[in-house]
Specification:
Length: 152
Amino acid sequence: MEKSAQNKPDAFMEEAINQAKKGFAEGGIPIGSVLVRAGQIIGRGHNRRVQQGDPTAHGEIDCLRNAGRQVSYRDTVIYSTLMPCAMCAGAIVQFGIAKVIAGENRTFKSSAQFMRDNGVEVIDLDLDQCFDLLKEFQQKYPQVWNEDIGVV
């Protein structure tokens, strides 16, 4: 898996981080995502499992829903503050999203290899900012975190 040497978020990851913070402020899990095409954000979202009582409302799924129907996703890049889980990785592969740029891959056993095996370029920025935000949430709400990752 390719890692970024710069360890500094670009404007798109900054927006994903803003989405994660918005989710945290709403009482939800701080994972944010943006979908980008040709240097423009076409969708943004954050994990809303808690807020909506919807087990499928992960950050990447919320982002894809907010982007709306697209003829093709092959020329898009999805940014997420956390490397996607199996469900979100499945959606990324299903829709043919070309590239995933994740804020970090330390918090949760992700599906990075699955995406790579299915032709998705995967980049882990390994940002402490993203890791620390989820760590804070885990410390404050361990039961909700365990529910989200399916260990309850």
